[in-house]
Design a protein that fits this description.
Among the domains are: about 150 residues, Rossmann fold (3-Layer(aba) Sandwich), CATH 3.40.50; about 30 residues, no CATH class. The protein is built from 7 helices and 11 strands. A 5-stranded parallel sheet has the order 2-5-1-6-7, sandwiched between helices. α4 links the parallel β6 and β7. α1 packs across α5. Bound molecules: iron/sulfur cluster. Iron/sulfur cluster binds next to α6.
């Protein structure tokens, strides 16, 4: 899954850029999904007094509004981007308004100053209102999302790698860089996505259907611990693939 973010100040053209990219990616046959980050403290799609709000106020921890044309699952708290992406299985996921996640980013802006205030190594293009006045800024392409949609999506196809992990540098530097530095190096065409050693992980872990990323040290500890037990069992074969499944405990009750 490839994930990118479009971020910038209010009314700088984020949603317009996003909807044009979504349309072009869909035209090219990709499955596409999106996440809108909302920064208003009082935001809630549900309004006080509705039946679903009454469920929530009564203490329901997950409320679903099932309509004839859409289904809205309402979590009564803010999820992390990691948790949200756990529900997505699309070729591309576009985040709107997210600036603190380890993904390639497009800044939308009215003025150069707005770009300068937000620029970092994860930005690979600029768009929004500023694209009406210039084509390049600080060696980055400034692309008009309405007139040059195909060029913008060509760049996305070329630049955006599969979602990288985002471990703190002290947890992993097996590629010789931090996760954020590797993303920057990929965007500058100095490194490749397969340089992340997690791609070659010998131990993978899935909990509740969600892949859990493990740094090489944790993979090794888990592998050694399990092999220590399993290698004593009849039927053990060196180098054979091992699958362990642990399900939720089923109790025998009359419930
Ligand atoms: S090897 Fe992968 S997980 Fe480790 S620092 Fe590099 S990008 Fe991050």
């Amino acid at each position: 899954m490839k994930v990118l973010s479009i971020f910038g100040v209010t009314k700088s053209g984020k949603t317009t850029v996003l909807e044009n990219i979504i349309g072009e990616l869909r035209k090219r046959g990709y499955s596409v999904a999106s996440v809108k980050d909302i920064h208003f403290e009082t935001f809630a799609i549900d309004t006080p007094g509705t039946n679903t709000d009454r469920h929530k106020q009564a203490g329901s921890q997950l409320v679903t509004a099932r309509g004839l044309n859409e289904t809205d699952i309402l979590f009564p708290h803010r999820l992390s981007i990691d948790e949200i992406l756990g529900f997505y299985h699309h070729d591309f996921v576009l985040l709107e308004g997210v600036d603190d996640y380890n993904v390639p980013k497009i800044i939308t802006a009215h003025h150069r100053q707005e770009v300068d205030e937000r620029l970092d190594d994860s930005v690979f293009a600029i768009s929004g209102v500023l694209a009406e006045h210039m084509e390049e800024y600080r060696a980055l392409p400034v692309i008009h999302a309405l007139n040059q949609t195909a060029a913008l999506v060509d760049l996305i196809e070329e630049k955006v790698p599969r979602l990288l992990p985002d471990f703190p540098p002290e947890c992993c530097s097996a590629c010789g860089l931090s996760c954020r530095q590797l993303l920057a190096a990929i965007l500058q065409s100095k490194r490749r996505r397969c340089d992340c050693v997690l791609d070659r992980a010998q131990v993978t872990l899935t909990v509740g259907g969600r892949d859990i990323a493990m740094v090489p040290f944790v993979q090794q500890v888990l592998k050694n611990t399990l092999l220590g037990l399993i290698s004593t069992l009849d039927g053990y074969k060196e180098h054979a693939q091992i699958t362990i499944t642990m399900g939720g405990e089923k109790r025998c009750t009359n419930e």
